[in-house]
User: Fold this.
Amino acid sequence: PANAQRADAWVPAKGHGAISAAYQQMYVRYHSRSDGTKDIPGTIRDRSVFLDLDYGLTDRLALNVGIAYKSNRYHGRPHPPLPDNHGEPFIDDNRYHGGWADWNLGLRYQWRSDPWAIAPYISYGVPARDYPTYAHSAAGLGQKRTELGVNVGHRFGPPLQNLYVQGGYGYSFMEVVDHRRVNHSTARLELGYFLTPRLTGRVTVVGQKTHNGLEFPQDYPPGTDPEQQFHHAQNLRDDYLNVGVGLDYHFNERYTGFATAGRSVWGENTHLVDYALTVGISRGF
Assistant:
């Protein structure tokens, strides 16, 4: 995903912040089972636009607001039909279907900034509309989410003054679906280096661990309850490890361009990202 400001271990000064827009192309070729075995029932192409605002309410407290517009396409074998599709339209028809995905609202607090920056945060996610979820090309999970976590970062001194590291951990309490609560833990680590006064390079690792999730195909044999099948995307154990590299270029004191490339290196019960390419621009104020 785009480098969201809410993942930052530092906060902007009061009255300052940044607004950013990013475009992403993502391609998924493999679906993985509970043991990591790869299947190719079809391929997914996602096109997304991320809009994000980060604003310093005080010198220690920052507000983050973000939303994504997604246009996704699936080509391949669709999910099996169910007796009750909950009124959802069929969208896995090899055509792009677009619309707003989820709103995200977050607060993070700069508990300390030196020698290690520590910023606890809370964020809330909610679907921006009633979009289909029983589809490979769904815009999201269609669930409300409350996440609690902490970001930590450090800027090194001489002779490594061009190096920084930051990371974070978050625990997401997901909305109960089909009488089951399946929460997620997410960890992120970023290592960055100021190559020049204007150019920054970074390497990122992101992993997710699911709690109380179901397994595919063990928990979905023939004759499975249709409601359990309908809500499989929300209730699967969806574990993965993604890696990425990126560059930030500071055009001036206000504008920064950024680009990232990433992919999945491991995953179980999930869509394995073959590649995700993101470009964007941020304006500070």
